[in-house]
Amino acid sequence: MAYSEAKVVFGGLIHIPIVIGVFWFIQGFILQRTKRKSSNSTASAQTAVKGTAAKAPAASKSTPPKKSAHADVPVNTYKPKTPFIGKVVENYSLLQKGAIGRVNHITFDLSGGEPPLKYVEGQSIGIIPAGEDAKGKPHKIRLYSIASTRHGDNFAGNTVSLCVRQLQYEKDGQTIDGVCSTYLCNISKGDKVKITGPVGKEMLLPDDEDANIIMLATGTGIAPMRAYLRRMFEPTEREKNKWNFKGKAWLFMGAPKTANLLYDSDFEHYQEKFPENLKYTKAISREQKNAKGGRMYIQDRVLENADKLFELIESEKTHIYLCGLKGMEPGIDEAMTAAAAAKGISWSELRPQLKKAGRWHVETY
Known about the structure:
The protein contains nine helices and 13 strands. By secondary structure, it is α/β, with parallel strands linked by helices. It has a six-stranded antiparallel β-sheet with strand order 4-3-8-1-2-5. It has a five-stranded parallel β-sheet with strand order 11-10-9-12-13, sandwiched between helices. The radius of gyration is 30 Å and the shape is globular.
């Protein structure tokens, strides 16, 4: 059946009041239900609060609020928009002749900051490279693990040191240099650098002087471990610290060649002076063989020492620190799984427990 345009319009107009009426009816119905729910929720909440108040004991005025872990650790003293301007004190290579790549130890003067840029072992700082990116914008911040103790390499408390490997990779047949790592490796004494931070609480040392510290590091992942070991065993540090380490420390260090071992002579010296407290185990992939005849990696050393490692891990005083390239994590996890199984322990169950207890510390990149 065909309708004329006039009939269609007239029919539509007739229905408008009906539609409006239905709309207002529905809206009113919804509002009434909303009010009833709101009233019931308020009454329930008031009842719950009264019940809680009746059951909870009155807070004692003499009981101080519980202090969160590491609450006194400085964080983000200097931010990207207002960085600290540090001055380069020294910049030298950490590698021996025949080493692969380029790795430098770089120290910055932190004097004159207001507020002072303070940090503790296990934290990181941000570096803003000079110049601009391809879009004409300032370069983004890169984070680097701190390699010095809170007292600095000069023990005066006014410097911070980094261990930096120049990043290089191949793209379309060309060698690309990392922006920030190349910038840092090339800076000279006296140059000024924008610094942010400090940041991080994941890699901090425990307060317990009798704690056991297991350290697993590859490459520049040695940075926080160097800070720990200086704090533990450097004579001047031990004189300055109110914290005097008495536990067991075990460092596993991975490198491609002997010439690439970072701070090696320092660690050998500490082991010689404190044989009861420090063990230093190396995995040199291109020079040593594992039990299967393949290259020796840090996870192979973990397997070799599984029994002694898990004797330490079974103690609630033991903390494990893992730092280096993210690619090392699967190998370490596999080694820990095998080592734990040899002791009748499930690593997949134990690791989350260690993490929850604040005893498993990982910083990979």
